[in-house]
Amino acid sequence: MNDALIDLRAWRQFVAVAEELHFGRAAQRLHMTQPPVTQAIAQLEKTLGVVLFDRTRRRVALTPAGEALLPDVRELLARAQALPARARAAAAGQVGRVRIAFVSTVGFEQLPAWVREFRVLCPEVALELVEATGDVQLEAFARDEIDAGLMLHSPGAAPPGLACLPVEVEPLVLALPAQHRLAGAWPVPLADVLDEPLVIFPRRIVPSLHDAIFGLYHAAGRTPQVAQEAIQMQTIVNLVSGGIGAAWVPHSVMQFRRAGVVYRQVHEFKGVGRRRVTLPVCETSLVWPAQASHPALARFVAFVRERAGRVPA
User: Fold this and answer.
1) CA 17, CA 41: separation in Å to the nearest integer?
2) Which of 8, 90, 146, 254 has most Cβ atoms within 10 angstroms of its Cβ?
């Protein structure tokens, strides 16, 4: 059998004959004379090694092979006809896929609402989501495994070398065991928590925010007493519920309701040398390779830019 590529013109001629069941009428429909159509069908059958039409002087009929092939050929021609419009849509970012990594804190509020709305606006752009900490996202960027990431960091401290769109700035709050002596206070005085055992993420996960938290203690003349490190915010909260220690978490983590844990605001105070100790805040940013030329990604970035800072529906 000859597996040579068959051009679309031959398939169009096949469909015309199959629908008209008459070579003359098919030729008129194609604005051709009959002999080239007859020759084209004969060549198609030779190429395929299959008889597509039973021919007699009185009738033309599809063979079982021709009947089986007809729906697929119609679909092929329809898809081919749609290609120019699809190419234009791809160039406009209306079709394609965007691979997005995100930190867990974004998954509590913004991300679910954004994904829902974006899929309505751009149903042919597939959003492929994967939860990943900042360090894992940077490795994924280096391997070209993701197109964009939603990262947590201190304000203005997004990783260098990436385009950055700030999405939200939020305060840190203190997660405490529900039975803790300070669980009933609101707000909690900062001086009362600086000597508490601390559950915190490793520095490699969010270096800027880790440094900001340690800087808070140092500004107050203390050294953090790290009881346990954990990577995911949910794990940190779970450890707090087990009484391992207290934890500084973004305000959005308060959406994660865990039995045995309470969230409390903390009151700032003047520390060593009468300097005011300011509580750290954290920023979430959408980041992507600065040189990326990805129409679907550009559309998603524009979408997020319009909604950054909105309260989710």
Assistant:
1) 9
2) 146
Quick: pLDDT tens for 91-105.
766 778 999 999 988
Residue 101 — φ and ψ, nearest 5°?
Answer: -100, 150
Residues near 7 by beta carbon (within 8 Å), at least 6 away in sequence: none
Question: Residue 202: its pLDDT value, please?
Answer: 96
Whether 258 and 237 share a structural domain: yes
CA triple 297-298-301, angle to 5 deg: 85
- The DSSP code for 269 is E
Mention every residue, 6+ apart, whose C-beta is less than 8 A from residue 108.
Answer: 252, 253, 255, 256
Pairing of the two strands 281-289 and 162-177:
antiparallel
Range of the domain at 135: 96-168+284-307
Give the angle subtended at the CA of 12 by the CAs of 8 and 18, to the nearest 5°: 140
Q: How many Å apart are CA 186 and CA 173, to the nearest integer? A: 11
Nearest-angstrom CA–CA distance, 296 and 92: 7
Q: How many domains does the chain have?
A: 3
